[in-house]
Amino acid sequence: MQARVFFATITGNNEDVADVIVAAFKAANVDVIKEDIQLIDPQDINKDETDIVVVVPYTFDNGSLPDEALDFYEDLADTDLSGMVYGVSGSGDDFYGDDFAVAIDKFEQQFEKTGAIKGASGVKVNLSPDQAATKALQDFTQSLIETAKSQDK
């Protein structure tokens, strides 16, 4: 099984989130690659080589998507990822109230257009992952793996 984790970060918090997810994949003996989202074109994701796609975006300002993830986000709507499992988790700042980590919700809505299968509900981390968030991210990753295993490829 192969997973790819695409992240965007300014402060390093989201890379910390991605690192927890990557470690959980590795602990489950899943081959995983962590990549900067701005270097990825969703249309180049090979369905024969990728079972699980995880996006780790941060949210800034009043619910804005990361600038470095905008091209990926926009291209995602026109990408066929049928049969792949996806998940979205990331950091935000609960100071922003209703706009807290809404980039996760926006990416989940965009993934729905691709034909991919939602493998787990997104995990919203306040700033950097603490012990509770780390456990939630590990459970998120395990759910992605279980969903991928249940799919006929």
UniProtKB/TrEMBL annotation:
The lineage of its organism: Bacteria, Bacillati, Bacillota, Bacilli, Lactobacillales. Belongs to the flavodoxin family. Coiled coil: none annotated. Low-potential electron donor to a number of redox enzymes. SUPFAM superfamilies: Flavoproteins. PANTHER family: FLAVODOXIN 1 (PTHR42809:SF1), FLAVODOXIN 2 (PTHR42809). One of its GO terms (molecular function) is FMN binding. The keyword Flavoprotein applies. This is Flavodoxin. Pfam families: Flavodoxin_1.
